[in-house]
Give the backbone structure.
Amino acid sequence: MSSKTAVSSESATSGNTVQTPQNENSPVTSIALFVVMMALFLGSIYSLSFLTLDNPWPMAVCLVLFGLAFWIPQTVLGRSDSAGEH
């Protein structure tokens, strides 16, 4: 089975390019996004080193950074709106 996406006659005649996983991001962009998201994730783990019973804020920071590290790639950068493409 090929990983290439077949171009329908409708999009071929309109001149639109088909967005496939192979041409979505350049390797440099993918690496930069990975580094930023990993920094958010590791920052969330690092914030737990300041957690005490008297200070709940490191846990709040951890939850926010952890949430952003997974929410941004899946919704803002992801292809969550591409269910009807194929």
